[in-house]
Amino acid sequence: MQFTAHLKKCFAVLTLGFMFLGIASIAHAQSRISDKDVEHLMENLHSDVKAFRSPFEAALKKSPIRKTSQEKDAKNLARQFEKQTGDMLSTFRHTKKGDNAFRSVNNTYEQLDAIVRQFGPQSSVVPSWSKVQADLSALAPAFGMTVTAQPVGSNY
Question: What is the pTM of this model?
């Protein structure tokens, strides 16, 4: 009889364990972003990066680095960022993969973020940059990453 009681307890523990694992895997599957949603987030990001370039270049013309090689480098970085987001979207549409491309986009984002922060919180570039930040923050979990998207004017 003791053996039967012990067997029932083991069976109950195993059953509870499998139920817990099942619930955890369902919760994980529900939190995963679908490929279609990832593609839409990438489209939003690419569109917002395109919209960001004009105010960014206008802000550069008013900045202390205007008419220097630093201004030229910053403009090239913004162009590179736009191209990277477009390439990432195109690659994802064909392969449903984008981890490496997202890392490159995130690296360029961090470089641009440092430049945008120099303009200050009152800059005309902040609203368009905030959209880019929000897009990247929404997209990052699809690749198991996080993005340091702090509002301009706040300290890390």
Answer: 0.77
